[in-house]
Task: structure prediction
Amino acid sequence: MNRQQLYTFGSALLATTALASTAMAGTIGSAAGVNNVSSSALRINTLAFASTASTANSQIFGNTQFAVSFSNTFTKTTKFGVEIDITGAQFVVSPAPTVTILTRSTSFAASFLGTLDAIGGSMNCNLTAVVDSIIIDNCQLTGGLTTTGIGGVGLSGILFQNGSALATAGNSVALSYKVYNANNTLQNFETVSASNIITSTVPISAVAVAANSYTVDPLTTPTAFTSLSAPTAGSLSVTLALVYLTLNNVSTKGTDLVVNLTAGSFATNGGVVSASVTLTSAALSSAAVSSITFFANGVATSQGVTPAAFSSGTATFNVANASSAVGTFMITAQFDGKTAIPAVASNSAGMSATWTAASPMQAIAAVTGPTTAISRGGFSGEANTVLGSSNATFLSFIRIHNNGPTAGTVTISVKNDATGAAMGAAYTSNTIASGQTLQISAKDIETGAGITAAAGQNYTVNVSGPIIGYIQHIIFNPATGQFGDLSSFRNAGVTTNNP
Result:
């Protein structure tokens, strides 16, 4: 059943149009068929547009189908016009796009029935195409159609230009529309705000990531810290960096927004013909590293495998094959098993690639990411009933002895001896050389942790770090000059070969 929609104009109510009883949400988007209007924007390759604006603006792109789906279904008593406006680019006026009228049932408007010619035939619209608008005017359904209404318009063969903004990923071309009364062009039946139909996307996404976390095993013999305990015990190899280069589903650099880049079309559409991976890591300058290996898509290369090539802490690898320039790149380091492996902080790995084509193109942006960190395992010791500095009768001292071959620092944290609650902040000691003993007083511990001494307060002190060693709790009576070792054993935590 049809209903009349009334509009107020010039203080008078005007019966402007007969509408189908079912209203829908107005949309505009790409169309793969009469009933396949998608609000998802098509993606175009940013590299289709040169970095020079004037050259980029001359690039013509498009040549696909778009459709406007009205929120209302207009019956044959309505004379209407449609104005489609563009932002982010301009229409190519010649050749003009082909326009069709989309029909649907006046009683059920969920899908379109088919198309009618906009010019002549059952519609006899007028078409005006300018750079910022397409106007389909003076349309009215004629003939004997009684159960069919007008639900939208289809456009094919649309070409765009002046899209230099698309050279930057994430920028878009958007269309908006309004349906107006052809007898009174100031009166709009419906309007839909701008919707993105084309969005620019980089053709290749690159990401550099760290691999597993590694821990050096403090119990390795004959020399300590020469192999790993985690993630694989006894391993002498680490993956320092992983770089992923992914081909995105974007249109080719030509005018066809339907044909997407594939591995096969890579080179023919300005494919990546060279790529460079640069790794910076303190691990590379360690004498413990005997070689590094670069893997491109699982295939090892012989580039830079000798220490002389990476002793500065940086290594660079190149790929010059378009088909293998997309995929996974991995750099591994091999330790010699004779030299102590150092702790290594995460640094950076980077990927850059050069895109070449016959026409001016932009370079693919370089990407950087973290490299893998290596920590050194060690002991974890604990002393309880450590007297606070407010106790003047007896003084507590913690002795930390490094009997391993490598210097290192330890982390000291404090808990309330009575409740187990953490107190203050954990802090790092000075470096303890191989064979050295570091002695710290209760006052030193309170200062380092930021704890204010309180009467009767005792502490539990935890000490952990990447050395082989042990701790002792020593108590001193300044009145008598006597010392006592309150450690019933030299607490070395998990390192079972410590004394």
